[in-house]
Specification:
Layout (H helix, E strand, L loop, with lengths): L27 E4 L5 E4 L17 H5 L8 E4 L1 H7 L3 E6 L11 H12 L8 E5 L3 H12 L3 E6 L5 H9 L3 E4 L4 H15 L3 E3 L10 H23 L7 E5 L4 H10 L9 E7 L4 H8 L25 H7 L2 E5 L1 H13 L6 H13 L7 H7 L6 E6 L16
Helix pairs in contact: 3-4, 3-7, 4-5, 7-8, 8-10, 11-12
């Protein structure tokens, strides 16, 4: 186990979380699939309510050039496979000109951070496993700012090239995502007021911008509500999202555990087996940092959950499921065959749903815990397209 990050700002302890929100996270381990574990959350997760979000970014996003809701694909073949009533996949492979959802958070956060500033910073700085960095670089370019993007080991070369093509200065950091974040913090601090850190995870003393990023992600969820309603569906029964540091999962929990909601769905997250920092923290009942190894799910390859996400994860999440690279690659291929061009992070929720909802010996417990029946409507958040990260694509034939 390594130190949490940044080394001088974060402690891997739940003591930094808001005590009014943090709940005990029981280590309820159940088998999933052929041996990879899943964490089953507290029975009261669906009754827990999150604080209301400070603002909705939907009107802002609708005002941006090129905005349109992304596709919510109805895939009956997956519904039959998973033993559910309907399965929808939110396809984020074409979001505001980029092949991933991250620009929703980056654009809203930069809009809020620059509002009312007499002099904007010259440069936006961030660390990334791919999609967030490209989104920050795109927003910087749109606003006439420079961008410096710290990239750790294991990011696909095409993702690195795409960030550079946005006009950003790419800084390679030898080490993990946590190391890259540490480097970005130091870089922005050294530049003083000439640089602004736009990081999609929180730690004590750095919470405002991550909160705006989480708010930005909720546009995707508002679209899903409208799209399901247009199909005559009141709401989902299960939503599965990817989890890296947990910021998207935080947004999902904030939306579906918001005050006043009725009939809230079960919520689950998917992580790489080699970087399941959310599940490890939930088992421990406090934030922990884990050592990671490379995964094709590069955008989820994180060793430390966001401190801001922790109260939501520990109280409002029903399950966390670890999936292998092979399972993510298979999910990519199956989604592509069904018309959804998913990258590995985007395909992870399907891989996790397959593990969580398996009906073989010893696997029914998690399915019951999630309340999934033959009538359940499932929504899988496919957060990146294959153009964002082609690591899940089959190798080219000679």
């Amino acid at each position: 186990m390594t130190d949490a990050l940044p080394a001088d700002a974060i402690s891997p302890s739940a003591a930094h979380a808001d005590a009014a929100l943090t709940g005990a996270a029981p280590a309820g381990t159940v088998p999933a699939g052929d041996g990879w574990p899943a964490w089953a959350g507290p029975a009261g997760a669906r009754a827990w309510r999150a604080p209301a979000l400070a603002a909705s970014p939907l009107a802002f996003h609708r005002s941006l050039p090129g905005y349109r809701p992304t596709v919510l694909a109805d895939l009956p073949e997956l519904a039959a496979e998973l033993g559910a009533g309907r399965v929808f996949v939110k396809d984020e492979s074409a979001r505001l000109g980029l092949p991933a959802f991250k620009i929703l958070g980056a654009s809203w956060a930069v809009e809020q951070a620059l509002a009312g500033r007499a002099r904007p910073p010259a440069t936006l700085v961030t660390a990334t496993d791919g999609n967030h960095g490209r989104a920050v670089a795109r927003v910087a370019g749109q606003r006439g700012l420079a961008a410096r993007i710290m990239i750790p080991d294991g990011v696909h070369p095409s993702a690195v090239a795409a960030i550079a093509a946005e006009g950003a200065r790419v800084v390679r950091v030898s080490g993990s995502y946590d190391d890259a974040v540490r480097h970005a913090v130091q870089d922005a601090a050294a530049a003083g007021g000439d640089a602004l850190l736009i990081q999609d995870m929180a730690w004590p003393g750095y919470t405002e911008i991550p909160a705006w990023i989480v708010e930005g992600y909720t546009t995707m969820l508002a679209e899903i509500d409208e799209q399901l309603a247009a199909a005559g569906i009141a709401g989902p029964g299960l939503v599965v999202s990817p989890a890296g540091v947990g910021s998207l999962a935080q947004a999902v929990i904030a939306h579906y555990r918001r005050p006043g909601i009725t009939g809230p769905p079960a919520l689950a997250c998917a992580e790489p087996a080699q970087a399941a920092c959310v599940q490890h923290s939930l088992r421990a009942g406090q934030l922990v940092t884990i050592e990671t190894t490379e995964s094709i799910m590069a955008g989820l390859n994180c060793g430390t959950p966001s401190t801001a996400a922790w109260p939501y994860l520990s109280s409002g999440l029903d399950a966390a499921v670890a999936v292998t690279d092979a399972e993510a690659r298979l999910a990519c291929a199956d989604l592509a065959r069904l018309g959804v061009p998913a990258g590995p992070c985007g395909a992870a929720p399907l891989a996790a749903a397959r593990r969580a909802l398996a009906t073989g010996p010893g696997t029914a417990g998690l399915r019951r815990h999630l309340g999934v029946t033959s009538e359940t409507v499932i929504v899988l958040l496919c957060t990146e397209g294959s153009a964002a990260n082609p690591a899940g694509s089959p190798p080219a034939q000679p």
